[in-house]
Amino acid sequence: MASNTESSIHVNDNNVDYFQRAQWLRAALLGANDGLVSVTSLMMGVGSVTSVKEDINPMLLAGFAGLFAGACSMAIGEFVSVNTQRDIEMAAQMKRGKAMKNGGESNYKEEAEREKLPNPVQAAFASALAFSLGAVLPLLAAAFIREYRLRLSVVITVATSALVAFGVVGARVGGTPVVKSSVRVLIGGWVAMAITFGLTRLIGSNGLKM
């Protein structure tokens, strides 16, 4: 009986570890997808303005600005969110700890639970890193291509390939249909890029008048 109990505990521990890893991977994929779509859309929008088509610098500058701003925003947002979650869980664990002490149980379980609390700094760093990894893809694709049409085509191709890859990995992690998930991610990214490209081009062609 003892061996069966121990084996079931090990199985449960493994399931918890797998679930936590899956959650982290899913969050990383979402962050990378956000960085990819945001920066690609921003670069395409700036690149759609006629006056800067032949100049690669504004497009790259916009991409780097989007990368830095997005990574900082993701990190700060995640830090605040996880801190709030941590405060809530700490309050709940303090109540459980008091209940265990009143019941004569040891503090071991309480300490083990505290170790599982989310780390705000780690979450903020992971979120910023995931966003940056996704955002750097269109920047690398455009960095060495001077001709406008070719540069835009390469950026779109790289973004499309990355979106499909993110959709496939996300489907595998979440246990959802691969084709459906990939198409959903791809269409969402295309819509965001098309809207940004079209509206920025419309504003740029008509000029900004204050």
TrEMBL record:
Q: Name one GO cellular component term.
A: vacuolar membrane
Is the Iron keyword given for this protein? yes
> Which residue ranges run through the membrane?
59-80, 123-145, 152-173, 185-204
Q: Name one Pfam family in it.
A: VIT1
Q: Which UniProt keywords apply?
A: Ion transport, Iron, Iron transport, Membrane, Transmembrane, Transmembrane helix, Transport, Vacuole
Q: Which GO terms describe its biological process?
A: intracellular manganese ion homeostasis
Question: Its domain of life?
Answer: Eukaryota
Catalysed reactions, as listed in the record: Fe(2+)(in) = Fe(2+)(out)
Primary subcellular site in the record, as a coarse category: membrane
Tell me where it resides. Vacuole membrane
In alphabetical order, the GO MF annotations are: iron ion sequestering activity; iron ion transmembrane transporter activity; manganese ion transmembrane transporter activity
Which membrane topology term applies here? Multi-pass membrane protein
What task does this protein carry out? Vacuolar Fe(2+) uptake transporter.
Q: Of which family is this protein a member?
A: Belongs to the CCC1 family.
User: What PANTHER family does this protein map onto?
Assistant: FE(2+)/MN(2+) TRANSPORTER PCL1
Name of protein: Vacuolar iron transporter
